[in-house]
Write a structure and sequence with these properties.
Chain lengths: 78, 177
């Protein structure tokens, strides 16, 4: 997991559905194709919502890390 | 690619019922689906400049309403109340001020749980290019002018225009809230 170096990081800690997804979408807009976004969330719903967002939009979910009540997602822009 | 259109009909003007259409629409649009909300009857209040500030949640006629206290109000006393009373008895709901109290508590809970406010969700909808459409007929019925409503809306439309817009898509979906 330490091998992934994100180009941008987004911390949505404390925010609840649907804000993590909305902010992820917005953060993605600022990236180039192939760049990696790190999304940090404390919303248990995000565990399923971020993969669903990737499934719909075509961005690639590289890895999900769960640590200390936080979910960290690594997304590669389509 | 086949066109998809996801449309929500928002008919309720209470704080609790303003959330589902705005959450679903902003999320659907963020997932790349062309999305619209048709605001009709009391749903118009969600996009009414003044009334959107005054959306309330009513304990009367809402037996499902849980009285969960905002995290900052949780203590031994409120825990005791919550343990014997999952929600305010319907009869108490008619006491003047109860609706305002419930609204205050819900807004406090919303904020403390990191849930977006209604204006924030409306901004998110606009940013994600959700089409916000006011029902022409209800605007006239309620005496709302275009100036009474927030900026960034589509032109007001009638039922036929709305249905036609949705059904034109290869994969249309309409949800009634």
């Amino acid at each position: 997991m330490a091998t992934i170096t994100p180009d941008k990081s987004l911390d949505t800690s404390g925010l609840n559905c649907p804000l993590p997804v909305l902010k992820t979408k917005k953060a993605m807009e600022g990236l180039q194709s192939g760049q990696i976004l790190e999304v940090i969330s404390t919303d248990p719903g995000a565990k399923a919502d971020i993969p669903a967002f990737c499934n719909r939009t075509g961005h690639q979910l590289l890895e999900t890390v769960e640590e200390g009540g936080k979910y960290i997602f690594y997304l590669r822009k389509k | 690619m086949a066109t998809e259109r996801f449309a929500i009909i928002a008919t309720k003007g209470t704080l609790d019922m303003a959330y589902p259409p705005l959450i679903l629409a902003s999320t659907a649009a963020s997932l790349g689906v062309e999305t619209a909300i048709f605001f009709t009857f009391y749903g118009l209040n969600i996009i009414h400049k003044k009334r959107m500030q005054e959306l309330k949640v009513a304990p009367v006629g809402n037996p499902a309403m849980p009285m969960s206290f905002p995290p900052s109000m949780k203590n031994g006393f409120t825990d005791a109340i919550a343990s014997v009373m999952p929600g305010p008895p319907q009869l108490l709901g008619v006491i003047p001020g109860m609706t305002d109290l419930m609204t205050y508590m819900m807004k406090k809970s919303i904020k403390e749980h990191g849930v977006a406010s209604i204006p924030e969700l409306l901004d998110a909808c606009k940013e994600a290019e959700v089409k916000l459409i006011a029902c022409q007929m209800t605007m006239e019925l309620f005496g709302y002018s275009q100036d009474d409503l927030i900026d960034g809306l589509e032109p007001p439309a009638g039922a036929a225009t709305f249905i036609n817009y949705v059904m034109e898509a290869d994969k249309p979906m309409i949800v009634f809230v």
